[in-house]
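Last lecture ended with a question: if I hand you only a sequence, what can you say about the shape of the protein? Today we answer it with a concrete record. The protein is Calcineurin-like phosphoesterase domain-containing protein. Below, first the input exactly as provided, then the predicted structure, then a couple of comments.
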Amino acid sequence: MFKASTYLWCCCLRRCHVQRVRGHPAAALHHLTHFPPNEVDEQVLPFSPTRHYGTGTEDDPFTIYRDPELIGKDNLKRLRFVCISDTHNQIHKIKIPNGDVFVHCGDAVRWSSAARDILVYNEFVGALPHRHKLFIGGNHCVCLDPKRPEQSQKILSNMIYLQDSMTDIEGVQIYGSPWRPKRGIIYPAEAFGYDPTRIREEKWSNIPADIDILLTHGPPYSVRDYHPLTDERIGDPGLLDEVVTRVRPRIHLFGHMHKCRGASLYKSENNQVLEGDHFQPQSNDILFVNLAIHQGKTLGEPVVIDYYY
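The predicted structure:
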């Protein structure tokens, strides 16, 4: 069980009030793309898939089924998701493939000019051809008032704004939450920062169980969450525990950690220590994808997912 004592605290310059996790099991993962930096050997697993999952590109999208028993069946419904995060005012430079649902997991702008640039972003997204468009806030979205999500929805008029809320898109249940453990007062880009000792009880425990897709801005602990400046993992252990033991989405999309972009597959059969009493072998495969586009001087590409149900 996650407790406040899971966290250590560092008060060094540039790391003031940055939480450090201790004694919490890490998720064992199969990395499908972009091997993350600083992975430890015991967390990385060899992978011999029984089917092709795809690579997340427009020509070879990730292929995910709501139920493994649907694999190979005919006449299934399909939604194509085109997913990005952390574009930081650069979205106009990105080739965005067509699809059914456009997803942005936060930080469309930079904090210093967020109020102006969020309007430009909204206009750009309004011109995209996707039938459905989803957005959650990120730490740079300081122009969005967490206490007034209805006002944020008015600002983001060309998309569905999710803040601890769910939407149903053609029978697919999607929940979005923008929060992440806060870092302290020295960080100007600190929108949606939350007390890490309370975030699980007050935010993550409210995520509905058995949704299809979860959107967060920050990563769960040990899943593409390495911070090269602090040499630490900064994902949230409470989020990890809720996702893998109770919520069990088929897909979890996030961003925030730019250097850890890419996709990893979580399989219950490899994570008995992490799941504990909730362990159900071969019942909880989750596609985790860090969607961060902005890679310093370069930009990544949107991730494309075909979801069959």
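Comments.
1. Residues 4 and 72 are 45 Å apart (CA to CA).
2. Residues 4-308 form a domain with the Purple Acid Phosphatase; chain A, domain 2 fold (CATH 3.60.21.10).
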